[in-house]
Amino acid sequence: MSKGKRVLTVIGIGVMALCLASFRVLKPIRVAVDAGHGGKDPGASGKVYKEKDITLAVALKLADLLKKDPKFEVILSRDTDTFVELARRADTANKAHADFFISIHCNSNPKKDIHGSETYALGEHKTQENLTVVMRENASILLEEDHKRTYEGFDPNSEEAYIIFSLMQHAFLKQSLRLAKKIEDNLTAKTKRPSRGVRQAGFLVLWRTSMPAVLCEIGFISNPQEEKFLASESGQTYIAQAIHEALRQYIAAGYD
Description:
Number of helices: 9
Strand order of the largest sheet: 2-1-3-6-4-5
Strand content: 15-25%
CATH class: Alpha Beta
CATH topology: Aminopeptidase
Radius of gyration: 21 Å
Oligomer: single chain
CATH superfamily: Zn-dependent exopeptidases
CATH architecture: 3-Layer(aba) Sandwich
Number of strands: 6
Helix content: 40-55%
Distance between the termini: 43 Å
Shape: globular
Largest sheet: 6 strands, mixed
Structural class: alpha/beta
């Protein structure tokens, strides 16, 4: 091979390597957005609204923001008022090779004055309050056919069943906690409502995921004032913007 041809070959290989590197850098981040509950599973109820309707509205607004952002691709677990099993929500994200999983929910409490957001990663519940939240959300599996086989006999109403999560370590716990913190910080900044912090609990929908995964309790539907905020166009937009910005900040920080 002549010297000139060797030089052209080396240049060609270099250009190809740069193109491949650029492709890796520019490859969109896939985000699985999960609207909690749906269909025959209404979730928690406020004076006027149901959790399933608010979570879907926020999920669709977040999906729209992600679609307009060239950094991201979006996968929705549901885009209509349909019932989707918890296991299928995680499986959809796994099969799509999603980079992040974000499940959106509304909180509820008998004390009507409690308000604010909290974001969870998979782990052992540290307080009775955390256990109450996770038991309520996991109870959705009781509406599924053959749930005992799907979830290996897991009883969402048994406190003893949650001992399993004290023995588990989610592969992406560190990343999930970092993302949860950014979501809470941005929710506070955008919505001007208090953050109740980053927490851990044994959510089945997070248990099956194979990527950084969080469950966002975006506010208390049981609080009449917060219910109005969660159901409002502006409130839902602020929440969606906060989660979108949290993802952008996480990516910009270069976390593994």
